[in-house]
TrEMBL record:
<dbReference type="InterPro" id="IPR036291">
    <property type="entry name" value="NAD(P)-bd_dom_sf"/>
</dbReference>
<keyword id="KW-0560">Oxidoreductase</keyword>
<protein>
    <submittedName>
        <fullName>NAD(P)-dependent dehydrogenase (Short-subunit alcohol dehydrogenase family)</fullName>
    </submittedName>
</protein>
<dbReference type="GO" id="GO:0016491">
    <property type="term" value="F:oxidoreductase activity"/>
</dbReference>
<dbReference type="Pfam" id="PF13561">
    <property type="entry name" value="adh_short_C2"/>
</dbReference>
<dbReference type="InterPro" id="IPR002347">
    <property type="entry name" value="SDR_fam"/>
</dbReference>
<comment type="similarity">
    <text>Belongs to the short-chain dehydrogenases/reductases (SDR) family.</text>
</comment>
<dbReference type="InterPro" id="IPR051122">
    <property type="entry name" value="SDR_DHRS6-like"/>
</dbReference>
Length: 244
Protein backbone atom coordinates (compact mmCIF):
# COMPACT_ATOMS: atom_id res chain seq x y z
CA UNK A 1 0.00 0.00 0.00
CA UNK A 2 1.34 3.43 -0.96
CA UNK A 3 1.43 6.42 1.36
CA UNK A 4 -0.53 8.50 -1.17
CA UNK A 5 -2.90 5.91 -2.61
CA UNK A 6 -5.84 7.58 -4.35
CA UNK A 7 -4.57 11.12 -3.71
CA UNK A 8 -4.30 13.88 -6.28
CA UNK A 9 -1.13 15.97 -6.02
CA UNK A 10 -0.07 19.10 -7.89
CA UNK A 11 3.63 20.02 -8.01
CA UNK A 12 4.74 23.19 -9.76
CA UNK A 13 8.18 23.54 -11.37
CA UNK A 14 8.62 19.77 -11.43
CA UNK A 15 10.47 18.99 -14.65
CA UNK A 16 13.84 18.99 -12.90
CA UNK A 17 15.57 18.68 -9.55
CA UNK A 18 13.89 18.07 -6.22
CA UNK A 19 10.31 18.51 -7.41
CA UNK A 20 10.83 16.01 -10.25
CA UNK A 21 12.28 13.53 -7.75
CA UNK A 22 9.24 14.22 -5.56
CA UNK A 23 6.79 13.73 -8.43
CA UNK A 24 8.36 10.37 -9.19
CA UNK A 25 8.13 9.32 -5.55
CA UNK A 26 4.53 10.55 -5.15
CA UNK A 27 3.48 8.58 -8.25
CA UNK A 28 5.28 5.48 -6.90
CA UNK A 29 3.36 5.96 -3.64
CA UNK A 30 0.02 5.86 -5.45
CA UNK A 31 -0.83 9.51 -6.14
CA UNK A 32 -1.87 10.94 -9.47
CA UNK A 33 0.52 13.84 -9.97
CA UNK A 34 0.09 16.98 -12.05
CA UNK A 35 3.45 18.56 -12.82
CA UNK A 36 4.25 21.92 -14.41
CA UNK A 37 7.11 23.77 -16.03
CA UNK A 38 7.54 26.42 -18.72
CA UNK A 39 9.42 24.32 -21.30
CA UNK A 40 7.17 21.86 -23.12
CA UNK A 41 10.07 19.60 -24.14
CA UNK A 42 11.32 19.27 -20.56
CA UNK A 43 7.75 18.62 -19.42
CA UNK A 44 7.28 15.85 -22.00
CA UNK A 45 10.55 14.26 -20.91
CA UNK A 46 9.59 14.42 -17.23
CA UNK A 47 6.19 12.85 -17.93
CA UNK A 48 7.91 10.08 -19.86
CA UNK A 49 10.44 9.53 -17.06
CA UNK A 50 7.74 9.28 -14.38
CA UNK A 51 5.85 6.95 -16.67
CA UNK A 52 2.47 6.54 -15.00
CA UNK A 53 -0.04 8.39 -12.82
CA UNK A 54 1.17 11.73 -14.17
CA UNK A 55 -0.17 14.64 -16.21
CA UNK A 56 2.02 17.47 -17.49
CA UNK A 57 0.54 20.97 -17.73
CA UNK A 58 2.78 23.56 -19.39
CA UNK A 59 2.80 27.02 -17.80
CA UNK A 60 4.64 29.75 -15.95
CA UNK A 61 3.75 29.77 -12.24
CA UNK A 62 4.17 33.54 -12.20
CA UNK A 63 1.31 33.92 -14.71
CA UNK A 64 -2.17 34.00 -13.22
CA UNK A 65 -3.68 32.87 -16.54
CA UNK A 66 -1.37 29.86 -16.61
CA UNK A 67 -2.34 29.01 -13.03
CA UNK A 68 -6.02 29.17 -14.05
CA UNK A 69 -5.28 26.78 -16.92
CA UNK A 70 -3.48 24.41 -14.55
CA UNK A 71 -6.31 24.22 -12.05
CA UNK A 72 -8.97 24.04 -14.80
CA UNK A 73 -7.16 20.96 -16.11
CA UNK A 74 -7.00 19.39 -12.65
CA UNK A 75 -10.70 20.13 -12.12
CA UNK A 76 -11.68 18.55 -15.43
CA UNK A 77 -9.46 15.47 -15.03
CA UNK A 78 -9.72 14.71 -11.30
CA UNK A 79 -12.16 17.18 -9.72
CA UNK A 80 -10.19 17.78 -6.52
CA UNK A 81 -6.73 18.19 -4.97
CA UNK A 82 -5.29 16.57 -1.83
CA UNK A 83 -1.69 17.77 -1.98
CA UNK A 84 -0.13 20.95 -3.39
CA UNK A 85 3.63 21.41 -3.47
CA UNK A 86 4.32 24.92 -4.78
CA UNK A 87 7.95 24.47 -5.74
CA UNK A 88 8.54 26.70 -8.78
CA UNK A 89 11.13 29.27 -7.78
CA UNK A 90 14.10 31.22 -9.10
CA UNK A 91 17.25 32.47 -7.50
CA UNK A 92 20.49 34.12 -8.47
CA UNK A 93 23.22 36.07 -6.76
CA UNK A 94 22.95 39.87 -6.55
CA UNK A 95 25.42 41.85 -4.46
CA UNK A 96 24.02 44.77 -2.45
CA UNK A 97 24.97 47.89 -4.40
CA UNK A 98 24.47 46.16 -7.74
CA UNK A 99 20.87 44.95 -7.37
CA UNK A 100 18.61 46.10 -10.20
CA UNK A 101 14.86 46.60 -10.20
CA UNK A 102 14.66 43.67 -12.59
CA UNK A 103 16.56 41.36 -10.20
CA UNK A 104 14.13 42.27 -7.43
CA UNK A 105 11.10 41.92 -9.68
CA UNK A 106 12.10 38.51 -11.06
CA UNK A 107 12.65 36.92 -7.64
CA UNK A 108 9.60 38.34 -5.90
CA UNK A 109 7.28 37.98 -8.91
CA UNK A 110 7.62 34.19 -8.90
CA UNK A 111 8.77 33.25 -5.39
CA UNK A 112 6.52 35.54 -3.36
CA UNK A 113 3.67 36.51 -5.71
CA UNK A 114 3.45 33.38 -7.90
CA UNK A 115 3.54 31.07 -4.87
CA UNK A 116 0.75 32.99 -3.13
CA UNK A 117 -1.53 32.84 -6.18
CA UNK A 118 -0.70 29.17 -6.77
CA UNK A 119 -2.07 28.38 -3.31
CA UNK A 120 -5.04 30.75 -3.61
CA UNK A 121 -6.11 29.38 -6.98
CA UNK A 122 -5.77 25.76 -5.81
CA UNK A 123 -7.97 26.29 -2.75
CA UNK A 124 -11.44 25.94 -4.32
CA UNK A 125 -10.44 22.43 -5.47
CA UNK A 126 -8.88 21.38 -2.18
CA UNK A 127 -10.34 18.48 -0.25
CA UNK A 128 -10.69 19.11 3.48
CA UNK A 129 -7.76 17.53 5.32
CA UNK A 130 -5.32 18.23 2.48
CA UNK A 131 -1.68 19.26 2.65
CA UNK A 132 -0.12 22.37 1.15
CA UNK A 133 3.58 23.08 1.26
CA UNK A 134 5.89 25.54 -0.47
CA UNK A 135 9.61 25.36 -1.22
CA UNK A 136 11.55 27.86 0.86
CA UNK A 137 15.33 28.13 1.08
CA UNK A 138 17.80 28.09 3.91
CA UNK A 139 19.28 31.18 2.21
CA UNK A 140 16.56 33.04 4.17
CA UNK A 141 17.87 31.64 7.47
CA UNK A 142 21.57 32.48 7.18
CA UNK A 143 23.55 35.50 6.03
CA UNK A 144 24.97 34.24 2.76
CA UNK A 145 26.67 37.17 0.97
CA UNK A 146 25.02 38.15 -2.36
CA UNK A 147 21.75 36.34 -1.76
CA UNK A 148 19.62 39.08 -0.12
CA UNK A 149 17.03 39.38 -2.90
CA UNK A 150 16.50 35.63 -3.12
CA UNK A 151 16.54 35.25 0.68
CA UNK A 152 13.92 37.99 1.05
CA UNK A 153 11.68 36.50 -1.63
CA UNK A 154 11.68 33.12 0.17
CA UNK A 155 11.43 34.56 3.70
CA UNK A 156 7.80 35.48 3.09
CA UNK A 157 6.73 31.83 2.79
CA UNK A 158 6.78 30.82 6.49
CA UNK A 159 4.83 34.02 7.22
CA UNK A 160 2.18 33.04 4.67
CA UNK A 161 2.02 29.54 6.17
CA UNK A 162 1.40 30.79 9.71
CA UNK A 163 -1.50 33.01 8.60
CA UNK A 164 -3.02 30.39 6.31
CA UNK A 165 -2.97 27.76 9.07
CA UNK A 166 -5.41 30.03 10.96
CA UNK A 167 -7.50 30.78 7.90
CA UNK A 168 -7.79 27.14 6.82
CA UNK A 169 -8.26 25.55 10.23
CA UNK A 170 -11.95 24.77 9.66
CA UNK A 171 -11.07 22.82 6.53
CA UNK A 172 -8.26 20.97 8.36
CA UNK A 173 -5.86 21.86 5.57
CA UNK A 174 -2.25 21.87 6.76
CA UNK A 175 0.26 24.42 5.43
CA UNK A 176 4.00 24.03 5.80
CA UNK A 177 7.24 25.16 4.20
CA UNK A 178 9.87 22.73 2.98
CA UNK A 179 13.19 24.51 3.24
CA UNK A 180 16.13 22.86 1.50
CA UNK A 181 19.75 23.74 1.86
CA UNK A 182 22.24 23.43 -0.98
CA UNK A 183 21.05 20.68 -3.31
CA UNK A 184 22.86 19.49 -6.43
CA UNK A 185 19.94 19.78 -8.82
CA UNK A 186 20.79 19.35 -12.53
CA UNK A 187 20.13 23.01 -13.30
CA UNK A 188 22.32 24.20 -10.42
CA UNK A 189 25.09 21.80 -11.50
CA UNK A 190 24.99 23.47 -14.91
CA UNK A 191 25.63 27.01 -13.65
CA UNK A 192 27.78 26.16 -10.62
CA UNK A 193 31.55 26.59 -11.07
CA UNK A 194 34.14 24.86 -8.86
CA UNK A 195 34.49 27.93 -6.61
CA UNK A 196 30.74 28.18 -5.97
CA UNK A 197 30.51 24.43 -5.30
CA UNK A 198 33.42 24.59 -2.84
CA UNK A 199 31.78 27.57 -1.13
CA UNK A 200 28.49 25.68 -0.78
CA UNK A 201 30.16 22.52 0.50
CA UNK A 202 32.27 24.38 3.04
CA UNK A 203 29.17 25.29 5.09
CA UNK A 204 27.57 21.83 5.07
CA UNK A 205 28.53 19.61 8.03
CA UNK A 206 28.95 16.51 5.83
CA UNK A 207 30.77 18.59 3.14
CA UNK A 208 28.54 17.19 0.43
CA UNK A 209 25.52 18.84 -1.16
CA UNK A 210 22.06 17.36 -0.80
CA UNK A 211 20.57 15.13 -3.47
CA UNK A 212 17.11 15.82 -4.95
CA UNK A 213 15.90 12.44 -3.59
CA UNK A 214 16.74 13.56 -0.02
CA UNK A 215 14.34 16.48 -0.41
CA UNK A 216 11.74 14.29 -2.13
CA UNK A 217 11.52 11.99 0.89
CA UNK A 218 10.92 14.99 3.17
CA UNK A 219 8.24 16.15 0.73
CA UNK A 220 6.54 12.76 0.95
CA UNK A 221 6.50 13.15 4.72
CA UNK A 222 4.75 16.54 4.43
CA UNK A 223 2.35 15.29 1.74
CA UNK A 224 1.25 12.16 3.60
CA UNK A 225 -0.50 11.42 6.88
CA UNK A 226 2.92 10.73 8.42
CA UNK A 227 2.97 14.48 9.13
CA UNK A 228 -0.68 14.74 10.22
CA UNK A 229 0.26 16.78 13.34
CA UNK A 230 2.81 19.01 11.58
CA UNK A 231 1.26 22.35 10.68
CA UNK A 232 2.54 25.88 10.13
CA UNK A 233 6.15 24.69 10.35
CA UNK A 234 9.27 25.22 8.33
CA UNK A 235 10.94 21.84 7.79
CA UNK A 236 14.60 22.62 7.15
CA UNK A 237 16.36 19.89 5.19
CA UNK A 238 19.92 21.10 4.86
CA UNK A 239 22.15 18.54 6.55
CA UNK A 240 22.53 20.81 9.58
CA UNK A 241 23.99 23.79 7.70
CA UNK A 242 21.71 26.31 9.39
CA UNK A 243 22.45 25.18 12.94
CA UNK A 244 26.25 25.41 12.89
N1 LIG B 1 18.92 23.72 -5.64
C1 LIG B 1 19.09 24.29 -4.47
O1 LIG B 1 20.18 24.25 -3.90
C2 LIG B 1 17.93 24.97 -3.77
C3 LIG B 1 18.08 25.27 -2.42
C4 LIG B 1 17.01 25.84 -1.74
C5 LIG B 1 15.84 26.08 -2.40
N2 LIG B 1 15.72 25.79 -3.72
C6 LIG B 1 14.41 26.00 -4.34
O2 LIG B 1 13.91 24.75 -4.75
C7 LIG B 1 13.04 24.89 -5.86
C8 LIG B 1 13.46 23.94 -6.96
O3 LIG B 1 14.82 24.08 -7.16
P1 LIG B 1 15.71 22.97 -7.93
O4 LIG B 1 17.12 23.47 -7.84
O5 LIG B 1 15.37 21.61 -7.48
O6 LIG B 1 15.10 23.08 -9.37
P2 LIG B 1 15.77 23.16 -10.79
O7 LIG B 1 16.53 21.91 -11.06
O8 LIG B 1 16.45 24.50 -10.90
O9 LIG B 1 14.44 23.18 -11.66
C9 LIG B 1 13.52 24.21 -11.57
C10 LIG B 1 12.21 23.70 -12.08
O10 LIG B 1 11.23 24.72 -11.97
C11 LIG B 1 10.73 25.02 -13.25
N3 LIG B 1 10.43 26.46 -13.26
C12 LIG B 1 11.30 27.49 -13.15
N4 LIG B 1 10.65 28.65 -13.22
C13 LIG B 1 9.33 28.33 -13.39
C14 LIG B 1 8.17 29.10 -13.53
N5 LIG B 1 8.20 30.44 -13.57
N6 LIG B 1 6.98 28.46 -13.67
C15 LIG B 1 6.93 27.11 -13.66
N7 LIG B 1 8.00 26.33 -13.53
C16 LIG B 1 9.20 26.95 -13.40
C17 LIG B 1 11.80 24.57 -14.24
O11 LIG B 1 11.31 24.27 -15.51
P3 LIG B 1 11.20 25.43 -16.66
O12 LIG B 1 12.53 26.12 -16.66
O13 LIG B 1 10.89 24.69 -17.91
O14 LIG B 1 10.08 26.31 -16.24
C18 LIG B 1 12.26 23.30 -13.54
O15 LIG B 1 11.33 22.27 -13.74
C19 LIG B 1 13.06 26.36 -6.22
O16 LIG B 1 11.98 27.01 -5.56
C20 LIG B 1 14.37 26.84 -5.60
O17 LIG B 1 14.36 28.22 -5.31
C21 LIG B 1 16.75 25.24 -4.44
Amino acid sequence: MGKLDGKVAVITGATSGMALAGARLFADEGAHVFITGRRQDALDQAVEQIGRNVTGVQGDSASLDALDRLFDTVKQDKGAIDVLWASAGVGKQNRLGEITEEDFHDAFWLNARGTLFTVQKALPLFNDGGSIFMTGSNASLRGYPNWSVYAGSKAVLPAYARVWVSELRDRKIRVNVLTPGQVASPMLEEVMDEEMKAQFESVIPRREMGRPEEIASAALFLASDDSSYVNGMELVVDGGTTVI
